[in-house]
Amino acid sequence: MKKSIFTFLVLVGLSACKKAESTNPELIKETSVAGATTILVDETVFPVVEDLAMVFESEYKRAKIKLIGKSETEILNMINKDEARIAILARDLDTAEVAFYNTERQVYPRRTEFAVDAITFIANKSVQDSVLKLQDIVAVLQGKTTGKIKTLVFDNPNSSNLRDLKKMANVTQLPKQGVFSMNSNKEVVKYVTENEGAIGVIGVNWLLQPSGDLLPYIGKVKVLGVENVKIKEKNKYIKPNQTNIADGSYPVTRKIFLINFQGSAGLGMGFASYIAGDKGQRIILKSGLVPKRFPSREIAVRNKVEK
Questions:
Q1: If we measure between CA atoms, which residue out of 104, 101, 106, 74 comes closest to residue 89?
Q2: How buried is residue 267: exposed, middle or buried, by Cβ count under 10 Å (0-12/13-18/19+)?
Q3: Is 60 exceeded by the pLDDT of residue 10?
């Protein structure tokens, strides 16, 4: 009798363990829709990726995605050290980087473009001027003085925002005055609210989907219209709304990619397919960013009108 009870308890215990294994992503063998993985995310686009991961997990209960926000330079350093294998960047890999991974690391990264983002310039709401010329941004980055901009403030010294603008200004080193970096997009917004002469540089996603602790500061800044020199019309100062990003009239945009270094089918591949698919693209559209492709919309046509 005692042996029977013991056997019963063992079976119950084994059954409970199996059930735990089937519901705990950490214990599940990784597939495209199950298991656990870590994704490094460029901080400038973190809010929209957080939304995508949240909805993905709600649909696939056996999947768990851990997001870690980092600067672009930190992400690439971690990838190179094999500390992570999935990343979301505000740019694609260039030819030299692809060749390096292919030849030196024997890795063939899968690159999935899924959205378009914009670099946004913000100022204190009390400032009268609400427009900006890119040539003034370039001048400051080149160490020149301009009466239009006292200080340029970036989210991180290793930020993709800073890299893009340094490339635009054709500089590798920053001037000792007029340009400095904070530690996050949130700190940039807060600094601008406290300093009238500062121009903050952040990803537009942080303004479209501000976190709770950022909300009190959003109303104290204004988004600046940026001159598009290609437009011949009088009103050529364009703000980064969804329409202007989509049609290319806003002049400072960049594409967002999920780059998978796993080398095998896994959760990274499943998440990439999801965010590039219809559901993921709808989430991006709703976020205010521009999806890689606009989701289709079915229209029902009726032969007669119901009274």
A1: 74
A2: buried
A3: no
Which pLDDT score is estimated for 223? 96
What digits encode the pLDDT tens for the residues 121-131?
999 999 988 99
Identify whether the C-beta of residue 131 lies closer than 8 Å to the C-beta of residue 89.
no
Which of 147, 113, 118, 115 has the alpha carbon at shortest distance from 133?
A: 147
The region of weakest confidence among 7-16, 163-172, 291-300 is 7-16
With a threshold of 0.70, does the pTM exceed it?
yes
Residue 263, Cβ density class (10 Å: 0-12 exposed, 13-18 middle, ≥19 buried): middle
Residue position matching structure tokens 């310039």? 121
27: which 2 tokens?
Answer: 């214990």
Residue whose tokens read 């059930």: 19
Structure tokens at 284: 């991006």
Residue 222 dihedral angles phi and psi, to the nearest 5°:
-125, 145
- Separation in Å, CA 302 to CA 166, 299, 305, 306: 56, 10, 7, 9
How far, CA to CA in Å, does 234 sit from each of 21, 30, 202, 228, 237?
A: 64, 56, 27, 11, 9
pLDDT of residue 235: 66
CA distance 197 to 193: 10
The overall longest dimension of the chain from CA atoms, in Å, is 93
Phi, psi of 89 (to 5 degrees): -125, 155
